[in-house]
Amino acid sequence: MTQVNFMRAGIIITIIALIIALAGYVCWHLWRITPQGWKLVSVCVFILWMASLFAGFAVNDRIPMKAATVMYEVGNTWIIVFLYLLLIFLVADIAAVCHLLPKMFLKDSAAGLGTVVGIVAVILTLGGIHYHHKYREELIIATSKPLDKTMTIVMASDLHLGYHNRKAELARWVDMINAEKPDLVLFGGDVIDLSLRPVIEGNYAQEFHRVEAPMMAVLGNHEFYSNLKLAQQFYKDSGIQLLKDTVAHFKGIDIIGRNDRTSHRRASLNTISKGLEGFIIVLDHQPYHLEEAEAAGIDFQFSGHTHRGQVWPISWVTDAMYEKAWGHHRRGNTQYYVSSGLGIWGAKIRVGTRSEYLVLHLTNK
After folding, report:
1. Which residue segments constitute the domains of the chain, with CATH numbers given?
2. Lateral strand order in the sheet of 151-156
3. Which of 7, 91, 109, 260 is paired with 328 by a 20 to 30 Å CA distance?
4. Is 148 helix (H, G, I), strand (E, B) or coil?
């Protein structure tokens, strides 16, 4: 085993150990706050819910589709429940130590348990409603480089099609894209979620053929996590031109598609862009090293991947990790847009972030 593999294994083991420790903290608080006679029930529900998440990774592709869909949505919702139970109990402990909350509120308390469960239920409900609202972000760029005409380009990233974002939802997104009357549609990776089974059995590729404009895309990390060969075939079956460190030319625009950094095999952006004279758009799923696009003289880069953390306060983490975790950005003469994603991974819940697509209008100065 190489040193890199040892490091990865160490990171994974550390993360698992941390999750187990924090889950133990939540279980202890659930035991304490639940009234007598119901303690074991509340803790067992939490543990079984957690187990359904990990069981789903192992069995979802081998059980009936409806059962797999339910297990995916239920199991992945546990992550959000766990996060907010952890935050609530941490805040409650601090408040109790500071004498801002009676300690008995956290011990054998029906009122305490009801308050905690109620807060989490409200977050799940409002976060689910918010996720289903798709935001339309519009950006106008005037360029001195010659264009055949004023162009409208719809860009979307992180659709995460699969057990949760299903064919009917994709059909709604296609209708939204067509309503923009685009000249071109660009996808910034992670069109697939974690499994190709639902998209292949459900013939999701059929929906992409309703898009009324040429489509191009790059791979995201999830295409590598699922099945790279089948994912690339899905793009082909969908009529989407896949760019992997290659350039496509479209009516005065040069579109560079980067191979995702998950592959560890990427040509340099300087090499790919050499000799290009049109308006240059780069599709790069993960928004690392934004200085590369500036140095290469790129006009515009579109990325995704971050989801901006999907839920608060994870958004604080992504904001700290990336130079730009979400939104419009500029470095010198290069402009960027990092999308929080049209779809989502895991539970269909957003708190403090949004699901969106970008409408880019290119005009001549």
Report:
1. 3-130 (no CATH), 135-364 (3.60.21.10)
2. 134-143, 355-364, 151-156, 184-187, 215-217, 240-242
3. 260
4. coil
As beta bridge partners, residue 329 has 336
The pair of structure tokens assigned to 266 is: 């990427």
User: Do 80 and 108 meet the contact criterion of CB atoms below 8 Å apart?
Assistant: no
CA distance 113 to 30: 8
pLDDT tens across 206-254, in order? 999 999 999 999 999 999 999 999 999 999 999 999 999 999 999 999 9
Sign of the CA dihedral with 100 first, then 104, 108, and 110 last: negative
- pLDDT tens column, 288-333: 999 999 999 999 999 999 999 999 999 999 999 999 999 999 999 9
Asked if 281 and 257 count as a contact pair (C-beta separation under 8 A), the reply is no
Distance, CA of 273 to CA of 256 (rounded, Å): 8
Q: Is the pTM of this model over 0.90?
A: yes
- Closest by Cα among 328, 285, 308, 307 to 188: 285
Alpha helices of the chain — where are they, by DSSP H?
3-33, 39-59, 65-97, 110-132, 167-179, 197-201, 205-208, 221-226, 228-237, 269-273, 291-295, 314-321
CA 291/CA 14 separation, integer angstroms: 32
Contact 272, 311 (CB under 8 A): no
Rounded to whole angstroms, the Cα distance separating 214 from 9 reads: 42
